Amino acid sequence: MNTEEILATGQEKVMNTYGRLPMALVKGQGTLVWDSDGKRYLDFVTGLAVTSLGHSHPEIVETIRQQAGEILHSSNLYWIPGQVKLAKLLTDHSFAAKAFFCNSGAEANEGAIKLARKYAKKYYGSEKYKIVSLKNSFHGRTLATLTATGQQKYQEGYEPLPEGFSYLELNNLEQVEKAIDSQTAAVIIEPIQGEGGVNLLSKEFVSKIKDECVKYGALLIVDEVQTGMGRTGKLFAHQWLDFQPDIMTLAKALGNGVPIGAVLATEEVAAAFRPGDHASTFGGNHLATAVGCKVLEIMTREGFLPEVQIKGDYFKHNLQLLAEKYGLDGQVRGLGLMLGLEVGVRGPEIVNTCCQKGLLINCIGGTILRFLPPLTVTKEEIDEALAILKEAFALVFS
Prior knowledge:
CATH topology of the largest domain: Aspartate Aminotransferase, domain 2
Helix content: 25-40%
Distance between the termini: 39 Å
Shape: globular
Number of helices: 14
CATH class of the largest domain: Alpha Beta
Largest sheet: 7 strands, mixed
Radius of gyration: 21 Å
Oligomer: single chain
Number of domains: 2
Strand order of the largest sheet: 4-12-11-10-7-5-6
Low-confidence stretches: none
CATH architecture of the largest domain: 3-Layer(aba) Sandwich
Strand content: 15-25%
């Protein structure tokens, strides 16, 4: 199908749930992608922090090829060797003792909420069920994770929402004591709010939440669906904040494009789940976990994560210089290669101009540019992206 046929048929046959650009990507290599007309782009979206090792990474491609020739899927009624291996790799590199596998970030957060409530009921009784999240957060599109998402615009039209959810303002220390009490089963936080605008949580704020969770026997869930797997220059972003969660969720970059999600938990918390309490037909199948193992192997190689920090600092510094040149308020936000810049209502125009010039970025809330290049991006590719951004800013702000 050519581009015109793709767009026409898509508009006719695919549900209208996305505001799509009039283009179709058909090929990728590293940081580069090509559309159905053959135009080349730098991909600084990476499927929203998914293809963090770049497109068509040769080791990932070979892993998929080998696994597809052996076995793709079998039920979780049987042990899956790759799943066992990936669980060990993840727990060896984190606070956790056990893992559960699913297919997406929403499923992972749904599983984490269920686990937290199961744990609360087991140790504290039926009145301990409330979930506290942050305003401007994003945790998924299921009814429970949508309710945990602290943005009303995502919830409209789906009422009545599940009960027992409340919201806390980001970095508001005074609200913490009021928000968490004896009925709180868990608090769920993102170390950096992605869809909320690349907003960082302060160490003091997280420390206060942790203290209150310990005081009332509530669990602390860290949603690392977007921030995890090296995105910020550490394997998990909460490692920058010096705290240990009880549950952690992962997805996106864990499969570099192959759908996979994971719920990690301490031994005590994980023990709240018994056979039949939770399940996922495709979760942790042979293909997804084979890729997950390879992703983790690559990301934990010597020098990989420090290099992400170096490239992130370089990109952030130059973005800040660009922002200052055009008198934009505020600092470039984020860590590693997860960065955001407030540009006001011209955000969508900048995105479209960059796209025309061969750079893919996205805009959050109509005002914040978000940059999520592959962790394998080169300095030369960052420079090319900066050159396009400079052209776009000159046109839009002239």
